[in-house]
Amino acid sequence: MLSISEAIAKISQIHDRGIREGVGRVEVGPDDAQQVVGRALQTLGLPEFFGSRLSLFRSGPVYVYAGMVERGIKPCPICGATTGMGLIVVIHQDGRAVSFDPALYHYADAGHPITADDVDVETLVAIVSEG
Amino acid sequence: MVRPDPYQLEEEALYLGALAATGIKPLSRIEYPVSPAVLDRFAAWGLVVASVTRFARDGTRCRHLILSRQPALIAAYRARFDRTVIAGETPAVVRCEARFFGYPACCAEAFIQAPYGPNDLAPDEQGLLFHHACPGCRVTPRLLLRYRTALAWARRQHRLLRGCSDRDMILSPLR
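Above: the input entities. Below: the structure tokens describing the complete assembly.
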């Protein structure tokens, strides 16, 4: 079983690789991906995604939705490093989904503790472990 | 780890400067170092620039830049935050920063209640902003054109800064 830091690091790698190489980028269309992600966002009470602005990356059954990463950055309260703002949404194709602050990418990288106050640890680890 | 591109960060700094120079944001904050050339642009746009020292929980000293046309706002921000510990997004901090950074109060309150909830903006509109608009927000839609104009202007200034030396264009009035 992955640790929560390993799970976040794995999501970060999927996201990073998707941005760098376009690998796994999924275009929005009337397909399964749109339905899976749309349902998951609705379940989480998050805004639906729109058109081609979607930033969705995929690795096997795991989708990483970065369309809610906000413009701007903020300082990490633990070490002062700059971190992202907004939400990263991780979705399994079976419909399970979890969201977290992109600052957790930095937490995992820097070895800061990640707790249940930061993210639904159990769901995230379960989703990523199957990815 | 997903890392910001230095070129994009510089453009972002100019965008924050443009927003402060036009008064769309009463005050902007930049959490990373910027080049002397960017600071020169801020001065040319009539911005007062000051540094603020913050402390992380592990004792790390962080230097942030703040920009505004109003020296009184610079002084007020420094009085509130200089040499303080970074506290995260507590309700008091969110409300206070909203006033400095020009975020609608309704959006700040909605963020405190439920961060990043659904709103009525398309992603490209939300992507212009530094705050998350609240559902049914009546203020944010009126800001969008100004944000869009400031971003286009900042991008043009950035291209000029890095690509050519059209001094008249760089120094032309923003407003």
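Note for the figure: Chain A has one domain: 4-129.
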